[in-house]
Write a structure and sequence with these properties.
The protein is of the alpha/beta class. It is built from 9 helices and 14 strands. Bound molecules: S-adenosylmethionine (SAM). It comes from Aliarcobacter cibarius.
Length: 273
């Protein structure tokens, strides 16, 4: 891509079609027509067009505004990539593929796609901190509402055996591709929710909104082993009490507040609801 391009714009007050015909005969570059202005952009200089245009205007006795500029090119892909930053959360470093790894961190490679979960949101980063603290090697973990798969990948990097589910099929596809980007394996995945879980887990993590967490509370507890850990997030402070009440039969281990978002970590002391 060149550093510069050239832009010629022509705004005839009359004989618009004749000017358009002339420019079409002069160039093979694309011509843009917008509100009476004809514009040509090219990586090649367009200076040679000025003389014929001026002569044409004179011959027609037409009034015509002509502007010619050299402009700096914008690398849109680079601009987009620069707008996406890596984020450090505890021992994790979440980064897109075009940002260099940090050798001293647990790198999570997540390329931004359609699914939620880049690590920048407070709920995701709080869950990452909880995973770092409460997930151990060989734990069986279920990520409910996996989105991009970021939490499941973090757990897999800590040596957990991970299952994922999401009600949105696109998220499962996105999770699969992010797992292969990270050279990690999903043990089992399904489209749907926690009610379809076929076993109990050492750790269940669910970063979904408060209303849904309350609605599926019994299924979340059922999927967590006795003595297992349940990590809940996606809860706005105004819903904190309601969610705490719904899970009051569990032992509260930790509550993380980040801005207006709350993340709760419980131990399942009964093994079921
Ligand atoms: C806020 S995103 C969380 C993504 C990722 N786990 C993270 O922490 O960044 C919530 C995800 O939950 C999914 N979801 C919503 N309701 C669900 C339900 N009842 N069961 C399972 N997944 C659900 C959504 O499709 C979405 O991908």
């Amino acid at each position: 891509m060149s550093e510069y391009y050239f832009e010629l714009s022509v705004k005839p007050e009359n004989h618009y079609e004749l000017f358009l015909d002339l420019l079409e005969s002069l160039t093979e570059d694309a011509i843009e027509e917008n509100e009476g202005v004809i514009t040509i952009r090219s990586e090649d200089e367009l200076e040679d067009f000025l003389e014929p245009l001026n002569k044409f205007s004179k011959a027609l006795n037409a009034k015509c505004e002509i502007n010619y500029e050299k402009k700096e090119s914008i690398d849109w892909i680079k601009k987009y990539q620069d707008s996406i930053q890596a984020v450090e959360v505890g021992n994790f470093y979440v980064r897109p593929s075009w940002i260099e790894e940090k050798k001293e961190k647990i790198n999570l490679l997540i390329d931004p796609a359609l699914a939620f979960g880049s690590g920048h949101h407070e709920t995701t980063s709080s869950c990452l901190l909880a995973i770092d603290e409460f997930v151990n090697k060989n734990d069986n973990l279920l990520d409910v509402g996996t989105g991009s798969g970021i939490l499941a990948i973090a757990a897999a990097k800590k040596g957990a055996i991970v299952d994922v589910c999401d009600t949105d099929e696109i998220c499962i596809e996105s999770t699969m591709s992010n797992f292969s980007l990270n050279s990690e394996k999903i043990h089992y995945s399904w489209v749907g929710s926690v009610n379809k879980a076929e076993k109990k887990y050492d750790v269940v993590v669910a970063n979904i909104i408060a209303d849904v967490l309350v609605m599926i509370a019994n299924d979340l507890k059922n999927a967590t082993k006795e003595g297992g850990i349940l990590i809940l997030s996606g809860i706005l402070e105004k819903h904190e009490k309601r969610v705490l009440n719904k899970f009051s039969d569990l032992e509260e281990l930790k509550i993380i507040h980040k801005n207006e978002w709350v993340t709760m970590i419980f131990k399942n002391i009964k093994g079921s609801n």
